[in-house]
Amino acid sequence: MPYAAACALLLTLPVLPVLPGQPGWSAAPAGQGRPSFYAEGAPGAVLRDTLAVTNRGTRPLTVRLRATGLPVALPGTALRIPARTRAEVPFTLTVPSDAAPGDRPATIVVRAADGRESAVRLLLRIGGPRLAALTVEHVAVRAGRITYELVNRGTTVLVPRLAVRADGVLGTVLDRAPRTLPVRLPPGARLKLDEPWPDRPALDAVTVRLTVTASGGARSTGTASARFVPWRTAAGTTAGALLLVATPVAVRRRRRRTTAELPRTEVEST
């Protein structure tokens, strides 16, 4: 939008002069007592609100506006605000038509020429059924770690909890109680993670089971099988097996050779 047209949309109001210790300007949602924006809408809806940028200084202020996280349409990117004036900037937010129900965060950033920024948070709640669902995939044991992937199959942001168990031939070799993972999994996201296992058994065949849960009833289990054989033991076992197979053959060959080398005895008849 052209700069002149953008200015025409601004409602400018006088403000009190800046006091000692106060910042020269600020940005916040228009109206009283709103620290951030909040909006609700179904996919495809167009929502409207207003941003207030207050210049308390004695000189005009030029700021640039941008939005992150959601399709927010602002009236131009550069705005000039007179001294001791509050500019109210209307904007629109279009809810993506393919958006899944749940909460989506965004930010409107106001930046002055001196590099100082003010970020105003925006939370959009998209209507529709809320479903908590996830899956654990590609579980594997590699080099002292258990690797796996988490996939959010639902419509809500998940904070997963993980429990780990491994059962060997003679019983349980690993049992870790459920704990909350330091991750947030938005709808549709896939995350590769790993779990350390430094004290894994030296000789065993195990089944590893990962159980992941989250609020809303989400639950999934993934498994993997692994065999642990020390390479020295494996090498010794292989050599021993070859020796056992080769020994009878060597004995038979030695017997044949010994028989062939015995001297002949001729008996003469009288």
From TrEMBL:
Keyword presence, Membrane: yes
Lineage: Bacteria, Bacillati, Actinomycetota, Actinomycetes, Kitasatosporales
Transmembrane segment boundaries: 229-251
InterPro entries linked to this entry: Ig-like_fold
Protein name: DUF916 domain-containing protein
Species annotation: Streptomyces galilaeus
UniProt keywords, alphabetically: Membrane, Signal, Transmembrane, Transmembrane helix
Origin superkingdom: Bacteria
Extent of the signal sequence: 1-20
